[in-house]
Amino acid sequence: MTGSATSTLHLGDRFARDLPELALPWQAEDATDPNLLVLNEALATELGLDPDWLRSPDGVRLLVGAALPEGAAPVAQAYAGHQFGNYSPRLGDGRALLLGEFVDPAGHLHDLHLKGSGRTPFARGGDGLAAVGPMLREYVISEAMHALGIPTTRALAVTATGEHVFRETVLPGAVLARVASSHLRVGTFSYARATGDLELLRRLADHAIVRHHPEAASAERPHLALLEAVVSAQAELVARWMLVGFVHGVMNTDNVTISGETIDYGPCAFMEVYDPATVFSSIDAGGRYAYGNQPGIAQWNLVRLAEALLPLLGADQPQAVAVAQEALSGFVGHYNRAWTAGVRAKLGLADEVPVEVVTAVADDLLTLLHEGHVDWTSFFRALGTAARGDVEPARSSVLDLTGIDGWTRRWRALGPDADAMDRVNPVYVPRNHLVEQALSAASDAVDLGPLRQLLVAVRDPYTARPGLERFAEPAPTEFGAYRTFCGT
Ligand code: AMP
Ligand code: MG
Questions:
Q1: Residue 133 in contact with residue 443, Cβ under 8 Å?
Q2: What is the pTM assigned to this prediction?
Q3: 255 lines ligand 1 (CB under 6 A)
Q4: Ligand nearest to the CA of 90
Q5: What are the catalytic residues?
C-alpha cells in the first residue's frame, strides 16, 4: 500500500480467480510525469472514492496504475473479436488493464480499468499507448450518454502521462481510468469457446450470470436465459442509441458487452442531419456500422455470442441451434418495443394512442426529416415548442412545408404533451464540432476550458440554459463532412 487513504479502496480479483485462463497478470508502464487532466468527482463520490485523495499524488499514481492498494492483482484480459466481420482469435487488452473490482456503497461491483497503460502481451504491433484527445473523447461522450440515461461504462479520470505518442503526428499521451459493471464482451465468449475447454466456457457463462443477469440462475435453462438476457439488453441499448442519434462506429464483437453497457468510445459521434447512412469513422469506408445498420449489426453480433454458447444450449447440435435461433429471434420484438416506446415519448404521445398510429406518424416524420436533411436533436426539441402552439421553429427546418404542415396537424390532433417531450428530447448532445474544439484545446494547449464548458452542457442535457445556446446549434457548414479516426 502506498499512501494511507488507499486503504479504504479494496481491489478484488474475482475475474482473475474465476477465470485465470482469461487473465494475464500484468503491470502498468510507468508514467514519467503524470498530470491529472479531469477527475469525475460526482462519479468518484457516488462510488465511495474520495475525490480529494484521488487528486493527491498517491491518488494520481493509482489512476495511472503506478501504485495500487495492497492485494491488487492487475491483469490484461483475453478476448477474441469479429472486427468488421472478420474473426481475430486473439485480441485482448493490448493497452489496457483490469486493476480489479470494488464494491460501491450501494453494494454494486465495478471493474476499475485503465486504457493507455502500456503494452501487454496482447499488444501485437501496437504501442500500448493512448493519446489525450481520444481519452478525453471517451470521457465527454460517456458522460453525455450517462446523462441521457443510456447504459454505459463511466470515465473516472484522464491523466496525461508526460509521454509522447506517435500517430500521424506526435501527441501527448494519457491514461483513462474507467469504471464498468464488467468488461465481459461477446468476444470473451468467442475466445473461451475457441479454447475447446467447455468447462471454461461454462465457468465464464456462470460468472456472467452472477454479475449481470442473476435471474438467469434460477431459470430452467440458465445458459439459454443468459443468452436471452443479453439479446434483450443489447436490443434495448441499441434502440436507445438510435433515439439520440448515436453512432458507435466500431461495433466489433470485442466492443459488445454482456452487461448491455455501451463500451469503447473510439470513432463514435452523434448524428446531426437525420440520415440512416450516416458514418463518421474513417476506417468504415463500406458503412458497415452506419447509423441505420446498428440494429442489424447488433443482431449479427448476438449470433456470434449464440455460436460461442452453443455447447451449453442443448444436448446435441441441432437442438442447440434451434434453441439459440429462438432466443435470437427475440431481438426484433425487444428492439421494436424499445424503439416505439422511445419514439412515443419523443413525440409526447400518451399510452392511449395505439402503437400502429405512433409507428405510422413516426415513419412519416422520418421520411420528411431524411428528405429535408433536418438536424435530429434540434428538430425534436423544437417539436416540444410546436406542441405548445409555436410550430415555426420545427417547421422552418423542413424543406417540404406542405408535408410538414399536414404531418403537424395529424400529430397535434393526438394531443402531444410538451413538458413530457422536454424531459426526453435533449437540448444538448456532444456535437462533433464542439467535441473537436474541446479536444484540440486540451491536446494542443492544455486548455481544458472548452472541455469543461461542454461537460456543463451535456451533463444536464434536457435543461435549456441561457448562455449555452451555441451548444444547441448544429455545426456551421464550413465544418463539413465529419470524420473520426479510430480511438487510438
Ligand atoms: P479497439 O478498436 O480500441 O476496441 O481495440 C481493438 C484491439 O486493439 C484491442 O485488442 C486493443 O487492446 C488493441 N489496441 C488498440 N490500440 C492499441 C494500441 N495502441 N496498442 C496496443 N493494442 C491496441
Ligand atoms: Mg475495444
A1: yes
A2: 0.97
A3: yes
A4: 1
A5: 254
pLDDT in 10s for each residue of the chain, 488 residues: 344 444 579 999 999 999 999 999 999 999 889 999 999 999 999 999 999 999 999 999 999 999 999 999 999 999 999 999 999 999 999 999 999 999 999 999 999 999 999 999 999 999 999 999 999 999 999 999 999 999 999 999 999 999 999 999 999 999 999 999 999 999 999 999 999 999 999 999 999 999 999 999 999 999 999 999 999 999 999 999 999 999 999 999 999 999 999 999 999 999 999 999 999 999 999 999 999 999 999 999 999 999 999 999 998 999 999 999 999 999 999 999 999 999 999 999 999 999 999 999 999 999 999 999 999 999 999 999 999 999 999 999 999 999 999 999 999 999 999 999 999 999 999 999 999 999 999 999 899 999 999 999 999 999 999 999 999 999 998 888 888 876 55
C-alpha of residue 255 to centroid of ligand 2, in Å: 5
**Ligand 1: centre distance to CA 352 (Å):** 48
Residue 422: CB atoms within 10 Å: 20
Regarding the beta carbon of 138 and ligand 1, being less than 6 Å apart is answered no
All three cell numbers of 446: 492544455
Mutate to test the pocket of ligand 1, among 98, 191, 488 (most ligand atoms within 8 A of CB): 488
Whose Cα sits closest to atom 10 in ligand 1?
A: 91
N-to-C CA span, the chain: 32
Instruction: Verify whether ligand 1 is closer than 6 Å to residue 430 (CB atom).
Output: no
- Cα 206 to averaged position of ligand 2 atoms, centre (Å): 23
Pocket of ligand 1 contains residue 94 by CB under 6 Å? yes
| Ligand 1 contacts CB of residue 123 (under 6 A) | yes
414 lines ligand 1 (CB under 6 A): no
**Residue 75 CA to ligand 1 centre (angstroms):** 15
